Each structure stands twice: as structure tokens, then as C-alpha cells.
Amino acid sequence: MESANDSKISKRTVFVTVGTTLFDALVKAVDTPEVKQELYAKGYTHLLIQIGRGSYIPARSTGDDRSLAVEYFTFSSSIAESLSSASLVISHAGSGSIFETLRQHKPLIVVVNEDLMDNHQEELAEELAERRHLFCAHPQTLYQTIASMNLDSLLPYPAGDAKPVAMLINKFLGFPVD
After folding, report:
1. DSSP 42-99
2. How far is CA 169 from the centre of its chain?
3. Which has the closest alpha carbon to 68: 47, 49, 48?
4. How many structural domains compose the chain?
5. What is the per-residue pLDDT for 121?
6. In the 8-state DSSP scheme, what is residue 4?
């Protein structure tokens, strides 16, 4: 079992991704002192934010005994390394990002971009949250989601089972669901 001192020494990264979109509301939400303090209080040591096409620039920090180290970047040819080294992922609601994170068995908070029209992503995120595979939030509820999250309550997403996804797509398109 890790002692409190060991957990401070080990790097526990929260990776935030907006994909290829513009989602400044998510970047601003994770850049608040309240969110950063809550993540630190939960034992995370680093915050890596992929800001995509956004114009909001988060505050960098090297971290110390009382705060997260914060870094950001715009795009990368692959986020696979950032994803695989993350202890927690906070993501936009893109299906690719969601399923790649779940495939790697990473705890996930999906933040819905309310500015998108015909937001089918919200339906997917809410359905997967209802099935307890992830947590679903909006930019304005991210702090509360982090403060109340219990990672032990999450269930692994069944690998290779396309039926639940097909059912969600059929439901969204208005086809009969068995």
C-alpha cells in the first residue's frame, strides 16, 4: 500500500483533451483554482491540457508541495502516449476519444460541449455514464463532478462488444432497438 509520501513522489497525471475542436469552455474549467486544487487534493500531481484550436491559454505551473504542475499543447500527431500515461482523463465528448480512453481502462470524465448543434455526443456520454463506464459533466459542473467522483464506482467497458454502441446509434437514428 502506498503511503502519503509515496503518492506525492509518484507522478499522477490528469490528461485533458479537446480533440481537434475548439472547446475553450473545457480548458477554462480545468484552469480554475478550484478544479486544480480539487485534483491536487485527490492525489494528482500533473495536469496536461491539449487545447486544440482554442484561443484560451491556461496558466503554466511547475507545481510545488501544494499545487499541480500544469503544461499544455495545441496538437500532437498522436495523443496515445499522453493517454497511456494518464491516471485520469478529462475529455470532450467525441466518440473516438471516449472509446480510446475506455479501451485503455482509464478513468474518464466526459465534458459535453454545449455549443455544438444537434449534440448527439451528449446522448452517448450520458448513456455511458448511466452504465457507469465514465462520469459525464458540463464545463460549469466539472468541479462538482471531480469533487464527488468515486473511481471505484466505475465499471470497465466490455472490450470488443460493439452491440451497445450499435444500439445507441440505432436509438439516435430512430431505428428499433431490441
Report:
1. TT--EEEEE-TT----PPPB--BTTB-EEEEES--S--HHHHHTEEEEEE-S-HHHHH
2. 22
3. 47
4. 1
5. 82
6. H
The Cα 65–Cα 68 span in angstroms is 9
pLDDT, position 3? 41
**Could you tell me if residue 36 is inside a domain?**
yes
Domain region containing 13: 4-173
Q: What is the CATH number of the domain that holds 141?
A: 3.40.50.2000
Please write down the long-range contacts of 164-171, taking CB distance under 8 Å and 24 or more positions apart. 164/131, 165/99, 168/123, 168/124, 168/127
3-state DSSP assignment of residue 171: helix
- Alpha carbon distance 16, 168 (integer Å): 25
Taking the C-alpha atoms of residue 27 and residue 7, their distance in angstroms, rounded to an integer, is: 26
Q: pLDDT below 50 — which residues of the chain?
A: 1-8
Instruction: Confirm whether 152 is domain-assigned.
Output: yes
Q: Is residue 37 part of a domain?
A: yes
Query: 178 lies in a domain?
Result: no
pTM, rounded to two decimals: 0.84
**Cα–Cα distance, 135 to 145 (Å, whole number):** 7
The β-bridge relationship of strands 69-73 and 86-91 is unpaired
